[in-house]
Amino acid sequence: MQQSDRAGLLYALSGFCTLSIGDAIVKSMPGLWPAPAMAATRYFVGSAILASMLARAEGLSALGLPRDPIQWVRGIAISCSAMGMFLAVWLMPLATATTIAFSQPMITAVLATIVLREKARPSTWIATLAAFGGVFLALRPNFATAGWGVLFPVLGATGMSVTIIANRVATGRASNLALQYYMSVTAMIFLVLATLTMHFFGPANFRVHATDWTVIGRCALIGVTATFAQWLIFMGTVKAGAGTIAPMTYGQLLMATLFGYLFFGDHPDALSFLGAAIIIGAGLYLWSTGRMRVPPKTDL
Question: With pLDDT > 90 as the criterion, what percentage of the chain qualifies?
Fold first, then answer.
């Protein structure tokens, strides 16, 4: 393995593991503040960090709001993903919510067929059916206690899939740093509007109220860790390529399982582990068949 590939894998693994820190922080705050308000705070901090980086790299003129509609699609989709996962980790074990979120590659493959008109391979449908069988197994132990709330991680995975599809469309329309900033700032705006809407027209538990400063601080910490994680994943992609680092995503699941066990007393049962194994197997199968379709590089 080349040195750049090894470095890329380490960057990516570190990034995906760091994402679990934010999920664990969210799980420590069930009901302390509305999920849209928490997510809006997270993206406010992330946008501030990215804005300072973009202004230094491309000047203050680069900080305007995007006019390209696809940038707003990216922001709204990642917002829905964030809120889905915020609610999911409150209702079920951290490892289970993260496991179900790993159905995202299969949802992305199906959406790419529908939206981008990409030709679906038989392996796509095999992996998709297997993954959703795994999702069903992982959901069953939690349905009695969480009800239809067990679908929140599916919302999170679907929102992330739409984000990835929109990212493909947006590629090349701005610098990579600007694209990250646009997604963060549009997500922040959408989440602020969602927070206000739910405050005035939603159920009582979505009303924004004065809260302890530690809640705001933890939301801000999520913004810092998530932004840093995204930078690590980006560096991994640059050094090794998206296809090479794809299996490193499962480092997030391992960290989620560890955090859930150490800090929240989560003990996933046999069905949850079986569902996780099926979902991970489907993802790795889809990744491996995609890699085999890429012709090897030759030195001229």
Answer: 34
Give Dmax (Cα) for the chain: 66
Per-residue pLDDT, 295: 39
- The per-residue pLDDT of the chain, averaged, comes to 83
Per the structure block, which two tokens stand in for 124? 């796509």
| Close Cβ partners of 246 (under 8 Å, ≥ 6 residues apart) | 105, 287
CB 88 within 8 A of CB 250: no
Higher pLDDT, residue 39 or 13 = 39
The pTM (predicted TM-score) of the whole model is 0.82
Closest by CA to 198, choosing from 26, 29, 40, is 40
Residues 15 and 242: their CA atoms lie apart, in Å, by 13
Predicted pLDDT at 146? 58
Residue 115's CB is within 10 A of a number of other CB atoms, namely 13
Lowest mean pLDDT among 117-126, 210-219, 244-253, 285-294: 285-294
